[in-house]
Amino acid sequence: MINRISAISFNTFREAVRDRVLYNLIFFALLLVAASVLVGQISIGIEKIVLVNLGLTAVSIFGIVIAIFIGIGLVSKEIEKRTLYAVLARPVRRWEIIVGKFLGLVGTLAVNTFFMAIGFFAALLYLVHAFQASDVALLAAFYFIVLQFVIVVALALLFSSFSSPLLSAVFAFSLFIIGTFAEDLRAFSSFAHGPAGWIASGAAYLVPNFSALNVISSVAHGKAVSGTLLAYNTAYALLYTTAVIAAAAIIFERRNLK
């Protein structure tokens, strides 16, 4: 089982790396980081704040785009090219395909984030000339960004397991946007009454809480990230991702591929 999942993960990683869209998005992300250095130099007194905000936001947005547009095609492309049938003809279970493709794309995004982080810290060092102890919080921000990618990849796979690529992209983007305002949605549900309050409350706890994983603004102002928040976000991302991947595997197991 482990060998089969590893083989699928490696092939997914290799295919994703070969995708030209991937390189284009990484290029634009690094370009935006470089542009933030220029903007930071123009913004007297807040150069570092501008760089951190724009740089981390660029990495997050382009990573989310990569996760969605590549994630929604992991299953659909295999079906369209009919290569999935050759894989299923071997002793490979459908849930192993889902898990393997998930791990392969997550690994791709982790590697890409690592290189974008190198570009970001190089730009930061160029701007401030020396790192500070508070800059350790930036590593936590990158870690939370990767956790966002993990959840988004799981969602993209879930929707692609039963829907078309276009609808899967719409659903994934919609959940990401709603999840970004999850805390505001929870606040609204506490004030709303009746059916509206029930719907808002249910949606607030059902959608992924991406707002808890966004610490870009706080780390830009030199605030530390607590160990409690690290542990909470890690546990939350793992539990939510496990539930989504399990749902995707169940749906894909029952899907009629004929």
In short:
With 258 residues, the chain is an all-alpha fold. It has helices spanning 2-18, 20-42, 47-71, 73-80, 83-88, 94-128, 136-160, 165-180, 182-191, 194-206, 216-220, 227-254. The chain is globular.
Radius of gyration: 20 Å
> What general outline do the C-alpha atoms trace?
globular
Terminal Cα span = 25 Å
The total of helices stands at 12
Structural class: mainly alpha
Q: Bin the helical content.
A: over 70%
Q: What order do the helices and strands follow?
A: HHHHHHHHHHHH
Question: Mind describing the biggest β-sheet?
Answer: none
Total number of beta strands: 0
Please tell me the overall pLDDT: 79
Show unreliable segments: none
What share of the residues does DSSP label as strand, in percent?
A: under 5%
Task: From the structure above, extract its key features.
258 residues; globular
Task: Give an overview of the whole structure.
The protein is an all-alpha fold and 258 residues long. Helices cover 82% and strands 0% of the residues. The two termini are 25 Å apart. Helix 2 (20-42) runs antiparallel to helix 3 (47-71) and helix 3 (47-71) runs antiparallel to helix 6. The longest helix is centred in the middle third of the chain and has 35 residues, at 94-128.
